[in-house]
Amino acid sequence: MIYQFNYLLAGGGCAGLAMAAQLHLRFGAQAKILIVDRDDKNSNDRTWAFWSDQELPLGLDKIVRKEWSAVRFRSPSWERTTTIAPYQYRLINGIDYYRFMRAKLEAAPNVYFLKGEISHLGEDDKSPWARVNNQLYRAEWIFDSRVGPETRPAESSPHYFLWQHFYGWRVKMDKPHFATQVATLMDFSHSHDGHPTFFYCLPFSPTEALVEFTAFSNSLMDQEAYRKRMVEYLHQRFGPAKYIVTEEEQGRIPMTDVDLANRNYRRIRSIGTAGNAVKPTTGYAFLRIQQQAESMAKQLFETGQVDQPPKLGGRFRWYDHLLLYLLQFEPQRSERIFSSLFEQQPFDRILRFLDEDTAWWEEVMIFKDLPIGWFLEAAWKHQVRTSPIWSVGPTLTKGTQYG
Ligand SMILES: Cc1cc2nc3c(=O)[nH]c(=O)nc-3n(C[C@H](O)[C@H](O)[C@H](O)COP(=O)(O)OP(=O)(O)OC[C@H]3O[C@@H](n4cnc5c(N)ncnc54)[C@H](O)[C@@H]3O)c2cc1C
Predict the structure, then answer these.
(1) Tell me: the pLDDT tens digits for 207-246?
(2) Is 280 touching ligand 1 by the criterion CB < 6 Å?
(3) Pick from 164, 87, 84, 155: which is nearest to 334 by CA?
């Protein structure tokens, strides 16, 4: 038997659920939608934090668990805490998102969930199809958020690739230690590795916070090394405080300029991480995924067609290239680069810059505070790497799955 749908979501995580909800919003009862995931999405497998100054799409404001009006940057020798108006730094728990989106979609009679492993995805004369648990499912369009075998570029490729990997705890302290209105985005005061590492702290109350160790590097660390860094940091920052760990979070996000989208199909589109929605130099993706889903569903509704996510390009990609170059090849310079960025500039300007929403003159203001010689050197070396004489194309290696 062959099952036929209008839209099939290959992966029902952040992007798959957002895309399904946007399609349902646009097409209503006309559209038969199938969401396939190998996982039940019943655990709090991640926490999404992001800044925003607008109402969130799909009613997601209802599940924002905490908002911070000020953020902090801490270098080894100084720290700066400032409000980020008009933005708020916001937090959504993974489990709340999965439940909220599923409840919304399950209430619609034409939306179906299927638990299973997608073993193959393809396209023939009739339509795109997915093979799940040895059964064929066809749809007019498939939206694919699986990121398959690791697309790490080969050494000889001009592309950059780093992992943003992190390990964190929700801790409950025996005494008040946290300023509840301030989210610490980067604390470099205990950074002593050969590559960029920092801590991140989101307080929920004077005694409770999510504290995470984050590193940007080529390889991951072993579990014990992450735990050790957490214990050391909590001791150094809060003294001999007593705390219990109520939850653990671990993950990794690709920081790369490799085009992850699969462009071989007429009616299969890559979305989410697979659709290049992750900002390569920050790892932030949640809001970009929501915006991507909204605009793809809109285009499909208005034109009957939907483009692949645009190829990485433009001046913000150029800035990403330079920073990726520095993070990958001059990691010892990263703390100074981030310190220069956060020391003087208005934070709302930095956040707009990271959102790729600044005007050129604001970017000049930002670059004047950065160690410009390093960026000029990176620009030259990037040019040499990508010039046709040296470049051999993005040879990809196969390995583990993305987290
Ligand atoms: C731990 C963690 C924390 C993060 N925190 C933040 C943050 O604070 N802010 C931010 O902006 N971004 C954050 N990100 C980055 C990004 O927002 C998330 O990775 C986001 O979940 C990406 O959405 P996605 O739909 O592309 O991938 P996912 O949410 O991972 O969804 C992909 C889905 O596909 C399913 N799947 C994969 N292969 C198959 C298969 N063969 N068959 C069936 N199902 C399959 C998976 O089970 C999964 O549910 C974080 C990432 C991680 C890993």
Answers:
(1) 999 999 999 998 899 999 999 999 999 999 988 879 999 9
(2) no
(3) 164
CA 387, CA 375: separation in Å to the nearest integer? Answer: 18
- The whole-angstrom separation of Cα 394 and Cα 396 is 6
**Phi and psi dihedrals of 299, rounded to 5?**
-60, -40
Distance CA 28, CA 105 (A): 11
Is 323 near ligand 1, meaning CB less than 6 Å away? no
Phi then psi dihedrals of residue 313, to 5 deg: -165, -175
Q: For residue 288, give the H/E element and its range.
A: helix 286-303
Cβ of 201 below 6 Å from ligand 1: no
The fold of the 2-48+94-150+259-303 domain, in CATH, is FAD/NAD(P)-binding domain (3.50.50)
Cβ–Cβ < 8 Å for 358, 366: yes
CA distances from 153 to 221, 260, 329 (A): 20, 11, 15
Q: Which residue do the tokens 């908002």 mark?
A: 67
How far is ligand 1, taken at its centre, from the CA of residue 42, in Å? Answer: 14
Is residue 281 classed exposed, middle or buried when 0-12, 13-18 and 19+ CB atoms within 10 A define those classes?
A: buried
Rounded Cα distance between 36 and 22, Å, is: 16
> Could you read off the pLDDT of 98-151 as tens digits, one per residue?
999 999 999 999 999 999 999 999 999 999 999 999 999 999 999 999 987 666
Q: What is the pLDDT of residues 320-334, one digit of tens each?
A: 999 999 999 999 998
Report the residue among 273, 291, 296, 401 best suited for mutation to probe ligand 1: largest number of ligand atoms under 8 A from its CB. 273
The percentage of residues in the chain with a pLDDT greater than 90, rounded to a whole number, is 79
Which sequence spans correspond to the domains of the chain? Answer: 2-48+94-150+259-303, 313-397
- Sequence letter at residue 99: R
Give the pLDDT mean for 288-310: 95
Query: What's the rounded Cα separation, in Å, for the pair 212 and 146?
Result: 26
Find out whether the beta carbon of 339 lies less than 6 Å from any atom of ligand 1: no
- Asked if the model's pLDDT at residue 400 lies above 60, the reply is no
Across 152-166, 258-272, 289-303, 304-318, the highest mean pLDDT is recorded for 289-303
